[in-house]
Structure formats: structure tokens, C-alpha cells
Design goal:
There is one protein chain. The protein is about 35% helix and about 35% strand. By secondary structure, the protein is α+β, with helices and mostly antiparallel strands. Strand 5 (about 85-90) and strand 6 form a beta hairpin.
Length: about 160
Amino acid sequence: GMRELDVVGVRVEMPSSAPMVLLREVGGARYLAIWIGANEASAIANVQEGNVPPRPLTHDLMVNTLSELGHQLREVHITEISGGTFYAELVFAEAEISARPSDAIALALRCGVQILCSEEVLDEAGIAVPEEEQDDEVEKFREFLDHVSPEDFGTDPESDDPEQA
């Protein structure tokens, strides 16, 4: 079975300063955290904040291309997790195309389509947050999001030096 997920937002985990996207099970108590790249993090944060770049970036380009060619994204699926890596698919009437979850989520938000996740993935990687703590967590997370902008997900070349980790 598949469960629908909502995007709570993007955050940077300290001390590694690696961005992750946090998703929440709709009508459930589980959260899914997926580590993503800085570009994809800004792509997701941009949509959530309603920022429209002056020129189309990769995900905008994909959306524009698909729409010009008359293909409609139906939904995106987070299908499996293997060795700590998540796998996703873009679902069209004509085809299912494998994608990284970060790209799939960025496109889903731009197209306003559902993000669905397999039960297996949620069973394996979902983090259950007790209900009384959920509002608190989400509140903290929203506060955090209020104080970051997509630029915060830019990479500082020096911070990638593993010697400093």
C-alpha cells in the first residue's frame, strides 16, 4: 500500500550542515527525513516560500518542458530504501520514470500533485513522533523555517573538507 506524505519543509542538520527534507504521513504519526543536496533543498524551499527565480532553474525547466509537450505529472512515489538510499518515481499516464526523491518532491510541489510513499519505506525509515509532541515539533520546525532562506542551503566550499568534520 501507499501512504500520502506532506512536505513539512527543509532544514539543515548540524554539525554536518547537510540539508534534509522532512515529510509527514498524512493522517498518521510518522515522519520521513531524507538527506538531499543543497540545490534540491533550495528548489524545495523556493516553492514553499513562493519565490520564483528570474530564469527557470532545473525543476522549473522540467515542469515547463512537460507542460509544453502535454505530459501531466500524476503523482510521485517514494518506492524503496536500500542501503540508506531512497528511490522514487515520477508517475505519468504514459510512463513511470525513476528519480531521486529530492527531484520528485521538488516537481510534486511545483505541479501540486500527491507524494505517496510505500508502507515498506515508512515501516523501515519512518520516525514515529508521539501526538502530543507533534505540534511542538512542527511548531519548532516552522520557527526554524521562518529564519532560513533558500540561500542558506548554498554550499560553502570550505565546509566540504572532510578533515574538518
